[in-house]
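queue> pop job 88
queue> type: inverse folding (structure -> sequence)
queue> payload:
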């Protein structure tokens, strides 16, 4: 394929200055190599450099289109893998990852995902995955470990919360051990007191951030609490208050209205929303 494409571009190159011909050949060679390696974005970057020298290079234009189509297909498969991990279907996620590796066996992202899925599969028996709350939290932990948007510190908090709920589940303990082995600092730099629950610790931490006017770290902490306990009324109230301090009134209203659906008779929430109404009236 590469030889054919080089023949196609030979004649147009003759019409270009000697130094530019050399530069274009360099870009073409690099682009084809990246393309063959499955590094489509890098290939596109080099073909675009060709087009800067000669905007009429049809081969470069066509190959950019082909590379974009490849990237779209690749992105869809990566999305499927991520969805499978989120659902807890680790074996099928691994199978699909191995298919991607067969086409691009040097891609570090694919290899990393494969390794993490193999780690999980060695611990988690798919027939033993329950539908209860603790397993839901455990799957959230695994997703934040092996999924596309890796967040190992939160994965560590989540699996510890699952252990708090199901203290006798040995699988959860093994998953926590895996996370600690993956990053020893999770354990060595952990400041949670032994007798404090994960939720209590994260709530206290978010409150400290608010007192210190560190609102964005507070939001991050509270949102993590709500991933673990979506209906935690205290955290919903607190999150709305942080948005209020940031003058993000629409977000505050959205959060408090959600909280009010959980607790329709909560007078404090009603007062919060009335206060937002007054702010809205004064700004009009």
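queue> result:
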């Amino acid at each position: 394929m590469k030889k054919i494409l080089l023949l196609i571009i030979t004649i147009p190159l003759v019409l270009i200055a000697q130094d530019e011909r050399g530069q274009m050949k360099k870009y073409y060679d690099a682009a084809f190599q990246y393309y063959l390696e499955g590094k489509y974005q890098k290939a596109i970057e080099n073909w675009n450099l060709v087009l800067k020298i000669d905007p009429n290079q049809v081969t470069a234009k066509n190959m950019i289109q082909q590379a974009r189509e490849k990237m779209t297909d690749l992105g869809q498969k990566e999305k499927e893998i991520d969805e499978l991990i989120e659902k807890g279907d680790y074996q099928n996620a691994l199978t699909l990852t191995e298919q991607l590796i067969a086409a691009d066996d040097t891609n570090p992202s694919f290899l990393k995902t494969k390794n993490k899925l193999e780690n999980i599969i060695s611990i988690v028996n798919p027939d033993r995955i329950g539908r209860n709350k603790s397993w839901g939290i455990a799957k959230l932990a695994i997703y934040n470990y092996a999924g596309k948007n890796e967040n190992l510190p939160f994965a560590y908090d989540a699996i510890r919360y699952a252990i708090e709920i199901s203290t006798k589940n040995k699988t959860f303990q093994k998953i926590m051990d895996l996370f600690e082995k993956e990053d020893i600092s999770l354990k060595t730099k952990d400041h949670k007191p032994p007798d404090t629950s994960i939720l209590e610790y994260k709530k206290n931490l978010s409150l400290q951030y608010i007192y210190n006017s560190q609102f964005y770290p507070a939001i991050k902490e509270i949102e993590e609490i709500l991933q673990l306990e979506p209906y935690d009324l205290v955290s919903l109230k607190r999150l709305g208050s942080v948005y209020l301090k940031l003058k993000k009134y629409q977000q505050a209203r959205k959060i408090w209205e959600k909280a009010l659906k959980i607790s329709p008779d909560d007078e404090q929430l009603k007062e919060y929303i009335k206060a937002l109404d007054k702010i809205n009236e004064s700004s009009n």
